[in-house]
Amino acid sequence: MEFIIDHECFTKAISDVNRAASLKTPFPILSGIKIIANHNCLILIGSNSDIVIEKVIPLTSEGVTILEVYETGSVVISAKYLYEIVKKLPAKVHLRVNEKQFVTIQSDEIVTNLYGFHSEEYPNLPQIDEAHFTKISSIELIEIIKQTTFAVSKSESRPVLTGVNMSFKENRLTCVSTNSQRLALRELALESSINGSFIVPSTSLNELSKLLNNDSGFIHIFVTDSYMVFKTNSISLFSRLIEGNYPNITGLLPTNPKTIITVDTNQLLMGIDRACLFASEWKHNNVHLEINNNGTRLKISSNSSEIGRIEETQQIKTIKGETDLRISLDGNFLIDALKVIKEEEIRLSFGGAMRPVLIEPIDHSSYLHLISPVRS
Amino acid sequence: MEFIIDHECFTKAISDVNRAASLKTPFPILSGIKIIANHNCLILIGSNSDIVIEKVIPLTSEGVTILEVYETGSVVISAKYLYEIVKKLPAKVHLRVNEKQFVTIQSDEIVTNLYGFHSEEYPNLPQIDEAHFTKISSIELIEIIKQTTFAVSKSESRPVLTGVNMSFKENRLTCVSTNSQRLALRELALESSINGSFIVPSTSLNELSKLLNNDSGFIHIFVTDSYMVFKTNSISLFSRLIEGNYPNITGLLPTNPKTIITVDTNQLLMGIDRACLFASEWKHNNVHLEINNNGTRLKISSNSSEIGRIEETQQIKTIKGETDLRISLDGNFLIDALKVIKEEEIRLSFGGAMRPVLIEPIDHSSYLHLISPVRS
């Protein structure tokens, strides 16, 4: 196996697949990157127990030759050392592997030798059924990930809650995440020949989001027995699915709210952020909301018995229903939800001091957040 | 005590003195910032066992009123909470303290209350003898700090070695730091009415460097019984001195080198950085240097028995003396020294494989680095 490759392309590709390569693994081979040199492309693969990332580098990019393959073949090289050395090289990289898996990496007058692994020992990629897929814009997928993954459970006690539930039904994708105290839901219309409900680890989705990095293209989504596969022109991420049944959330969404108010999203976010100053003293980051002045002002406050107290009032733009309300919420949950709402105004629907609060952007009906109150 | 102050100035000042305020201290009052409102200025003080930072805010800045004092007085307020709240306020800050040390901080419709401490309990500033001082440009002082503090000892076993030895003698400042395996020395001519040798903790100097932050003014340096004081127009840093005698280093500087070579500084830095890839496996980050090709090429290499080997050769610009040399050095020590040399070319003087290497910029005789070899 032997090839010469553009330094920048090679560094970026190694950095991408490195995200999946395992630093701590009982299987040394998984700490490596598999490199396959074909006549017409180079393929790099990194994997761990949750995700597999595959990157394809073609011979040319924008009409310029970036890769010349002199001898086809494959090898597995330590991900850590390969990345550390290649990123520090000054120019084109010349990589050769002899029959004993001894790797020589040369650039200008710099020569590095590494012991490689036999690539036959590296696990195979899951097989994709190309007949059923969904196509989604990368930007929309990144937005969905941002708007849902934060709300998953951090505890492994109920594994299904550590993932995002992605349901494809009648050309509609619904993504839900919850940790039992708060819930994020996002819906999207799209053309899909996939049907079914899948639980994808939030960590995989966050990795995917970093990999896509505002790439403006389209993603094809495939599903295999135990993987969901996200595929662009040059990169594929295979995410393990979480087994189990996701809780049915339809009954959780509140009906008949007692009070509905609209407020400025960013102003509320800033106010809650300030109120969290003393909230961190409490187990549930208690921040208190109170409707005042006959329904025209929202008071936000938090206090600590030993240190002090903070309060401010903000304008309520519109109010429907009862004008008398006090409720305590987890300030961090509020901040997380408000941060991912792009719209300038939101609607807060209250069912009473002990009922969950529904937060929705006023001119976007396809996503919502639900937060349970805490005892004050 | 009562004043109204510009939000940006107040935030910056609190952030500056906060560097000294102690997060972990057996004396709760030292976790606070002392604020003194005078008729003509506001003074903020933060301190810990090593440093005291004092910041003075005048009534106006560049002709604009930034401070209005309505009632003089003083108070101590939790540094953590004061900073956290003030940085998040949207506008001018109105601060009042009542006779019970109850502090009210108001900005627009945001009201915060904090319990303050009696300021009488806060330790007094050390007295400065203004008769003896040294004046130095901030940029030069920052450079000296950068070129010496990295080489101090990280171990507390010999406390004097954790500081930089600053000697003022006949209008000459000499700064030396060493951890016994490497040494950095920097000299500077300046006018000084201070004479004597002082050991300043490297941590204080690093804090000072961050505080000055490329400020282009001048620093006045004073010395008290147990403090060195660095003073600009608006800010003073008092650093505790380390007691004890600093080792005499004059005998350490090598004489009669066997080989002297000159090489490109940045190219050598990049080469050593690459060679460190395998050096980290060794206790002393062993990187090997070897003069080859009849004194025209410098080979840089490192290897690991299990993973691999890296080597490269670089051009030697000039050579004097023996053209045969092999030596092993701590790669990280080399990187630290090369990083702080601004000049494009350096001279390396070798006394043999077991003698320290002297590194100097070729056109700057006032600073040098000395590194002891390691056994390969």
N/C terminus separation of chain A: 67 Å
Provide the CATH top-level class of the largest domain in chain A: Alpha Beta
Task: Label the CATH architecture of the largest domain in chain A.
Answer: Roll
The CATH homologous superfamily of the largest domain in chain A corresponds to DNA Polymerase III, subunit A, domain 2
Number of E strands of chain A: 28
Mean pLDDT of chain A: 93
Task: Report strand order across the widest sheet of chain A.
Answer: 16-13-14-15-28-27-26-20-24
Helix content of chain A: 10-25%
In angstroms, what is the radius of gyration of chain A?
A: 25 Å
Overall description:
Two copies of one chain form a homodimer. The first copy, chain A, is an alpha+beta fold. Chain A folds into three domains: 2-121, Roll (DNA Polymerase III, Chain A, domain 2), CATH 3.10.150.10; 134-248, DNA Polymerase III, Chain A, domain 2 (Roll), CATH 3.10.150.10; 253-371, Proliferating Cell Nuclear Antigen. Chain A contains six helices and 28 strands. In chain A, the strands form five sheets. Chain A has a nine-stranded antiparallel beta sheet with strand order 16-13-14-15-28-27-26-20-24. An eight-stranded antiparallel beta sheet of chain A has the order 8-2-3-4-19-18-17-12. Chain A is elongated and about 80 Å long. The A-B interface holds A 78, 81, 84-85, 88-90, 103, 108-115, 270-271, 273-274, 277, 306-314 and B 78, 81, 84-85, 88-90, 103, 108-115, 270-271, 273-274, 277, 306-314. Strand 11 (110-115) of chain A pairs antiparallel with strand 23 of chain B, so a sheet runs across the interface.
